[in-house]
Amino acid sequence: MGKLIYSMITSLDGYAEAAEGDLGTDAGDEEVHTFVGDLFRPVGTYLYGRRMYETMVYWETAHTEPDQPPHILQYARDWQAARKVVYSTTLESVSSARTRIERSFDPDAVRKLKAESDHDLTVDGPTLAAQAIRAGLVDEYHLFMTSTVVGGGKRFFPDGVRLDLELVEQRAFASGLIYARYRTR
């Protein structure tokens, strides 16, 4: 049985998307990117909303760009090897292999997917993750916190949900990014 992991870069004040501008991240930092690549290499399925999929589909062709460093090439290979499920009512087609579209998020279907999976799954994007969190599907939360306070936007955790979590791992990067992994109790 696979675990469902929710992971995103967040501002120090808990926003996964800033209302204005970026989160002040150093996600392109080689140390951070290599860590993220190693962390998510075992993931077998990515669950995306349309907007997150449109951001991540870059990895389908990233390896074709000249002079890519080894950690970028490895991440692209790992992403391409995983299955992707895109939840969208508007997306007509996908532009990556091993990808299918679902028109609505069905918690029971995701439970079945977890139960049948030999690998972990991730849910990516705060809107889709909120549905998984409210359905009690998320097993782990991986936060990459920047040193920026953005004051508003889309929150990492949805409003109106109480979670009791256990900190199981943490790491600070030279860039100032803090990684914290929590498990659902």
What would your notes on this structure say?
By secondary structure, the chain is an alpha/beta fold. The chain has one domain: Dihydrofolate Reductase, subunit A (3-Layer(aba) Sandwich). The protein has helices at residues 30-40, 50-56, 70-81, 107-116, 126-134; strands at 4-10, 15-18, 45-49, 83-87, 99-102, 121-124, 140-145, 153-155, 165-172, 178-184. Strands 5-4-3-6-1-7-10-9 form an 8-stranded mixed beta sheet, with helices on both faces. A two-stranded antiparallel sheet has the order 2-8. Strand 9 (165-172) and strand 10 (178-184) form a beta hairpin. Helix 1 (30-40) runs parallel beside helix 3 (70-81). The longest helix is centred in the middle third of the chain and has 12 residues, at 70-81. It is globular and about 35 Å long. It starts with a strand and ends with a strand. The relative contact order is 0.27. It comes from Streptomyces indicus. Residues 3-178 form the Bacterial bifunctional deaminase-reductase C-terminal domain. This is Dihydrofolate reductase. GO terms for molecular function: 5-amino-6-(5-phosphoribosylamino)uracil reductase activity.
